[in-house]
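Exercise 7 asks you to align residues with tokens for two separate proteins.
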Amino acid sequence: MGRQSAAGASFLSASLRFTVADDAAPVDDRFRFWHGPQNRWRIESNDEVVYVRGPDATVLRGSDGQMRRQVADIVLPLLGQVNPLDLLGSESMLMKMSQDAYIGPASSVLVDGRPGWSVPIGTSDSDAMTVVLDDETGMTLRMESAGQIAVAAASDISVHDELADSVFTWDGTLADTDDRSHRGDRDADRHRARLDILTAIHRALDRRDEVFEVIARSAEPSEAADAVSRLLDVERTSAEAVLALQLRRFSTSERAKVSTELDEMRRDPPPAD
């Protein structure tokens, strides 16, 4: 995991393609992204900016196509099952893995001419996925499930001495924003947003079969967000947070964690300023 930490301190840009070879639900997501130290990001999909994180603000594009300021750290952009955030930095898939995860022996490989290290990682030897780490940057170059049904592959990697601050700044229109600058207002907004999202997630974990069913019946992410919003009686942004959950979050242990945090937030609102 040390190489992943080192990658988080680098200026770099690359492309990512994530595919799932499933006749019932095929996936072919493509991204171009830029990364800088202090967890700065710019991510584009289909030549459209979908996520920008800078030192002062984080904005993301919802399923309705509008860019919004992120006010709660649990909100995730609708970037799909695997996205550039999974490749490096503090929020990467490897950094979030349990310390009890199975990690097999590493072997040297070449991926599109780039030296790397291939490592099987999973809950056990039998269900391990293959992860390839770039030897130069420490970034994840490739992830593939058993049988290569799901494959995430980075390409066109460039390491930069520096990237302009403007790369990590969104200067376009923001939906649903206001000009309040009072710290108490901001704290209350964040608390309210996180509480709404945790409530939605808690409801989704209680009704996971119904959630999976309405998502499976939806033709587009926007339609799925509307369906989840109606099913759980929550705001659209909260429904998008449910859609962004990884499947592991639907486990019993994760439900307990969400329930505990939700109880704490209901019990301890932010102090009035």
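Second protein for Exercise 7:
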Amino acid sequence: MLTQAIPYGVAQLIQPLFVHPLVNTFHFTLASYTLIFTFGAVVGSIVSPFVGKALQKVNFKLLYIIGIVLSAGAYVIFGISTKLPGFYIAGIVCMVGSTFYSGQGVPWVINHWFPLKGRGVALGLAFCGGSIGDIFLQPITQEILKHFMTGNTKTGHLTSMAPFFIFAAILLIAGLIIAAFIRVPKPTEALASKDEVKENKKVAHEKAAHEFQGWTGKQVLKMKWFWIFSIGFMIIGLGLASLNEDYAAFLDTKLSLTEVGIIGSVFGVAGIVGNISGGYLFDKFGTAKSMTYAGIMLIISILMMIFISFHPYDSRISLYAGMGWAITSGLSVFSYMSGPAFMAKSLFGSKAQGVNLGYISLAYAIGFAIGAPLFGVIKGITNFTIAWCFTIGFVTIGFILLVIAAIRIKDIQKQMVADKPEIVLDK
């Protein structure tokens, strides 16, 4: 949880807050600068499997420290860069570093400490750390930026690159302290008794006997509704990229840095609630209904952004609408955080859950990688209002395709098990 709150929070969650100051300072276009998120996402997804293999062979703590050093070093590169290629390199290095200690590192530790029971709860609590970090990192970042900026948030520029060196130090120190304590269990440490292991295997065997096994990875690729589902999730990624990465750049043109920081904190709190409640929604109502709810929340959040775009700088109503964005957007985070893992098993079965999860995650990653620069291009040609209208279109179309595909896939499941009453389908 601490890893997600501080090292990961600094490495990834506060980066959008620097977009507007940097664009103003170095006269970049929004579209050209936000390519930083595209390059980071693409390279990070390529590196991730190799990091996963390295964790099986190399000491975990060593890899954790390497990741911390890479991310902290990336902030130093941010601090000395003046041209776009330098910022692109920094973004890539930062993302690769976070893969070591967060993307692959956190699940690796949790899986070792919770080999039988409680793994899902532990993972959920660990990844809630990012939302907790948002609560205090967002306002802290905005206050630090205020001391090193001149002018207002809309037209102001940085007078010093010191904030990047400050956060490099925070990330490095916090990461090394956590690394001193974090570890995987020793071979001699028994995490469960022999009776518990035996009982767990028995329960798992009985569950598997009554579980919908689903399709292999190759079979899934031949399913029409899988492709419609994936295209929908990819289009959702197009919309969510701008909502997650460009919200600060937009709000900076309408509100003070302090107010934007407060909104970020509210988003962090709502994200905690969203992550926790999302698991309940998936278990209780299944994919189609849960994702419909998430889609409605996201559409409302984008409507808040469109509403804000019509009001002048420092309008009080914009602050309230910003709070509305933070709450509705935060409540929907489960749709793209825990959602892919749940949907992979619920829709396509347990036979090739890991492979199918990879397909689903890749679809979203492609959309997300394209979405941020695309939003910048649209905004550059038109304005924020039109860009947000495109975003709401992407999200609406994406969720409609995804929900329809989920319903049809469930229908196919029911047809397959119609003559097998002993099989129990997930929701």
